[in-house]
């Protein structure tokens, strides 16, 4: 029981911190990608709506930034924004976390009871992060709240009306989870009123340079260091890497670079999962030969690095002699 009480004490602390962390606005989203601009337009359009928003996207794409931006753009901006990670809370605590409990609801319940997230978010926004990890037993109770607009605390019998905007987010394929009976179909469609899909960074290549420049300035300021210059070969790798961890991975990698004055303490692994841009539409596109791909890669590097043989050979991972042989083989001019 002491463990349970300590858990709720931590929950109370988290409630206060979560309200303070509502700091992001649409202006904080750095992009020139047309799909992202469309998403921002859609989010602004529905910011004052009461409808549920379901944000889907891979880890690190910025789902909470979108959620906070919607909240701060809405009429609820000066009301609470309460975030809960549905996958981080033990299953036996999540109901108490969301609904709260009355005094004496169970042995060890604290005097005066406990106010849940639904009530804490009254008038504002409740952000249900990692909704795909919510246990099935809790999903049916969430569905009832969405349908009826009120909650009942554990150990209580009073219906408490709530006025909140719900934004849910997940990095999982909820449709696939429904098919596997891991997520309720009725809840899925109840959440999917305004679906927002954030594309991974590998589909927003034009944003990598912008984000790199932004994070270099931000991390240099944070670490009180001079903004470093990045070697051409490392810059090329950063721009062309597929970033399976998306914006968050890029941000952390840049912080590593700033700490090491323009170098990096580890090498980006080209075999990381997520490297699939070449294959994503392979069924519908012409497949190049290896020689064609090699020729294009060499020409691209030659143009990128002003035909500097040393730099081009390093970026391509081959010796200078091998590069000279390939230039001759493919009739590429120096």
UniProtKB/TrEMBL annotation:
Domain of life per record: Bacteria
Keyword Transcription regulation among UniProt keywords: yes
GO terms of molecular function: ATP binding; sequence-specific DNA binding
InterPro entries with a match to the protein in the record: AAA+_ATPase, AAA_lid_NorR, Homeodomain-like_sf, HTH_Fis, P-loop_NTPase, Sigma_54_int, Sigma_54_int_dom_ATP-bd_1, Sigma_54_int_dom_ATP-bd_2
Alphabetical list of SUPFAM superfamilies matching this protein: Homeodomain-like, P-loop containing nucleoside triphosphate hydrolases
One Gene Ontology biological process: regulation of DNA-templated transcription
Pfam family, one: HTH_8
PANTHER family: C4-DICARBOXYLATE TRANSPORT TRANSCRIPTIONAL REGULATORY PROTEIN DCTD (PTHR32071:SF57), TRANSCRIPTIONAL REGULATORY PROTEIN (PTHR32071)
Name of protein: Sigma-54-dependent Fis family transcriptional regulator
Originating species: Clostridium tetanomorphum
